[in-house]
Amino acid sequence: MKTSEGLHRQFACWLLVALLCFAPALFAQKGKKGDDAGGGTRSVQGSVTSAENAPQAGAVVFLKNTKSLQIRSFISKEDGTYYFNGLSPDVDYELRAEYQGISSPSKTLSTFDSRKEAIINLKLNKK
């Protein structure tokens, strides 16, 4: 039969091993949680209008990450609105809209724009 001191020593060893194994995972999770909870992202929204200033439903709004060149898209709602979230504050984004071969000029959401919820409206040009 093991002594009480031997059991305590064995328990302490297992506890140390467990801490060494799981500590990196705990710190990594804390870092991720801090990024999400700390408001490390921003969003952009706005409306797409026709050349006649009417809300344009069904326009495709393109959001291009100028660092990774990844492109996301959103089809404007009935009232012409669009929305993108989860954007990095450390990246510039280019926005433009297209509808039936007509497009808007590109607009940039810059890293220097410190708004958490930016509003950028897009107007389609005449053909």
Overview of the molecule:
- With 127 residues, the protein is of the alpha+beta class.
- The chain has one helix at residues 4-37, and strands at residues 42-49, 60-65, 71-75, 81-87, 93-99, 102-103, 107-109, 117-119, 122-123.
- 15% of the residues are buried.
- 27% of the residues lie in helices and 34% in strands.
- A hairpin with a 2-residue loop joins strand 5 and strand 6.
- Strands 2, 3, 5, 6 and 7 form a five-stranded antiparallel sheet that branches. Strands 1, 4, 8 and 9 form a four-stranded mixed sheet that branches.
- The protein has one helix and nine strands.
- Residues 28-38 have low confidence and may be disordered.
Secondary-structure element order, N to C: HEEEEEEEEE
Structure classification? alpha+beta
How many domains is the backbone divided into? 2
Estimated share of beta-strand residues: 25-35%
Overview features:
single chain; 127 residues; alpha+beta; Immunoglobulin-like; 2 domains; five-stranded antiparallel β-sheet; 34% strand
Short characterization:
The chain is an alpha+beta fold and 127 residues long. Helix content is 27%, strand content 34%.
Task: Give the arrangement of secondary structure elements.
Layout lengths: L3 H34 L4 E8 L10 E6 L5 E5 L5 E7 L5 E7 L2 E2 L3 E3 L7 E3 L2 E2 L4
